[in-house]
Design goal:
Keywords: DNA damage, DNA repair. 49% of the residues lie in helices and 6% in strands. The chain is mostly helical and 373 residues long. Helix 13 (280-289) packs across helix 15.
Length: 373
């Protein structure tokens, strides 16, 4: 019996040493041969064998489910930390798409509907009356002027291109001379309806010189017409532009300065809140109204006249009348009456005559006789 047992022991193969498992060269350290023990039971004892498994890559086997990472984020509503899965659900996708679409629509609406605030013109019904009520309540000194002068009128209206053309033609001219040249210019264009950019550009400097227009003014007229033809300016754009943008665009035209733009805005477009800070008559009126020792500088005018907003055009109109009543014709009144420079015989004219001429010519281009900035 002992011999049989020894014989069986001798016949059994000697256990072989386990092979060393080393990762192949140039392979990531996470890739190695995995040794998985496999247990087989027998009746008498348990024998453990080892089996080599194929190298394991960095990606997990498809049979093992991937646990989603948890992302910590801050709620935009209440500032509380929330944890959400990196894999969005169908409902979250729909909500995100809906919010993105809503933001896109809001941005498009904001682009299409740019806020533009343009006050009602003074020629609108009841606007002058509203301006007078506001000025009476805002300034006691100005209220005294309103009581002794008739209200302004803003009835007539020409197209912006025609009004700007007239403004250029009347520059540096007495009223009578300017009217004579303007009449010949209208005849050359075939009437006021024919004063359009194409017609003005077709007129040569020689043709304009024959009717009394200087070469410099001819270049001003052509520059204005070219800006219309190129689309830089248009009647509809001028009418709908806010005051600041309009001032910037019109002063780009050769021969049109800040004083001309202010006169155009008041007497042609009937803008209610224009303060001609460079106008000598308005500055002199402010000095007299508030008993100032010196003539206010243009930089001081905005601060002194702030209380008149949003009807500074009407306040300026009363200041012109105030200065005229003191015996010193204002620039606007003198220009409307045809006085390029003050002359004794013109200063002796009756004030009502000057004022009537202003009312009849409020839509005319005014003469930049002392300021052409």
């Amino acid at each position: 019996m002992v011999e049989q047992t020894q014989s069986q022991t001798q016949n059994q193969p000697e256990p072989q040493p386990e092979p060393e498992t080393q990762p192949p060269p140039n392979q990531d350290s996470t890739t190695a041969l995995a040794v998985i023990p496999v247990q087989s039971e027998t009746a008498n004892n348990a024998t453990i064998t080892h089996a080599n498994v194929t190298p394991q890559t960095s990606s997990p086997p498809s049979k093992i489910p991937l646990r989603p990472r948890k992302i910590r984020k801050l709620s935009p509503d209440n500032g509380v930390d929330q944890t959400s899965s990196s894999q969005p659900t169908e409902s979250s996708k729909a909500t995100s798409a809906k919010s993105t679409k809503s933001r896109a629509i809001q941005q498009q609406q904001q682009t299409l509907t740019v806020p533009r605030i343009i006050a009602r013109p003074l020629s609108s019904e009841g606007e002058v009356e509203a301006a007078i009520r506001h000025l009476r309540n805002a300034d006691r000194q100005l209220a005294s002027l309103i009581d002794i002068h008739p209200p302004p009128t803003f009835d007539s209206f020409h197209t912006p291109f025609l009004a700007l053309t007239r403004s250029i033609l009347y520059q540096q001219l007495a009223f009578k001379a300017g009217t004579s040249i303007y009449t010949r210019f209208i005849a050359l264009c075939g009437g006021e309806a024919g004063v359009v950019p194409e017609t003005v550009l077709a007129l040569t400097p020689q043709q304009l010189r024959q009717i009394g227009v200087s070469g410099r003014k001819a270049s001003y007229l052509h520059d204005l017409a070219r800006k219309y033809q190129n689309g830089i300016l248009s009647d509809s754009a001028i009418v709908n532009m806010d005051d600041k943008s309009l001032f910037t665009m019109l002063t780009m035209v050769n021969g049109i300065g800040s004083w001309s733009v202010h006169m155009f805005m008041i007497f042609s477009l009937h803008r209610p809140d224009v303060l001609p800070i460079n106008d000598l008559g308005v500055r002199k009126g402010v000095q007299l109204l508030y008993s100032l020792e010196e003539l206010p500088r243009p930089s001081q005018m905005d601060q002194l006249c702030e209380k008149w907003r949003p009807y500074r055009s009407v306040a300026s109109w009363y200041l012109w009348r105030f200065v005229e009543a003191k015996g010193a014709p204002s620039s606007a009144a003198a220009v409307a009456a045809g006085a390029a420079l003050p002359q004794p015989q013109q200063e002796e004219q009756q004030q009502p005559q000057l004022l009537d001429q202003i009312n009849s010519l409020i839509n005319i281009g005014y003469n930049d006789f002392h300021i052409n900035s």
